[in-house]
Amino acid sequence: MTIRVMLVDDQVLLRTGFRMVLAAQPDMEVVAEAGDGVEALQVLAATAVDVVLMDVRMPKLDGVETTRRICQQPEPPKVLILTTFDLDEYAFSGLKAGASGFMLKDVPPGELLTAIRSVHSGDAVVAPSTTRRLLDRFAPMLPSAGKEPRHKGLERLTEREREVMVLVAQGLSNGEIAAHLVLSEATVKTHVGRILTKLGLRDRVQVVVLAYETGLVRAGGHG
């Protein structure tokens, strides 16, 4: 199966570089490009795309708002935010908007290719621990203790599912969670799947965001 990729960046040189890397892969094809968010939405309306590589700072419509609009569509493509060290706040907003993860623009080609394949298969490409550090940095933006919004889905979680959710938000892998709770890794995977279904979330990244927003996990990674 060929992964259909769209490049969205206002810098033509960067798009050219990414296109050259992807074109050399037998399982990938760049099927569309856009220089801003408005153009990206127009192109997506007429083009079948699996994964969008999304810049954040663009004219007309930035990457965060473009991501939000894409993810609101039925059966949207997966979005991978491209950012730089000094744009972490955009990555945070992009995750909240529905992106499946983010990567630095100067990521080695091999890591970019792995990330695209992971996103396409339904995984979040950002390690939960990386996401947690990002959220810790922006904890002041999140609700303070006692004032957090509640998510009705949390009430539907079993005690064990809440335990698993907290550990996911603290950056533990399924294997680490299994060891911590003395469960099989398959059982943990089942719990994570039920958590995603009950909360209406798409991946582990969104679990981390929700855990922080609702106060289930505090800055520093402690429940």
UniProtKB/TrEMBL annotation:
Keyword hit for S-adenosyl-L-methionine: no
Record keywords: DNA-binding, Phosphoprotein, Transcription, Transcription regulation
GO molecular function: DNA binding
Domain Response regulatory: 4-120
Residue numbers carrying 4-aspartylphosphate: 55
Residue intervals of the HTH luxR-type domain: 150-215
UniProt name for this protein: Response regulator transcription factor
Lineage: Bacteria, Bacillati, Actinomycetota, Actinomycetes, Kitasatosporales
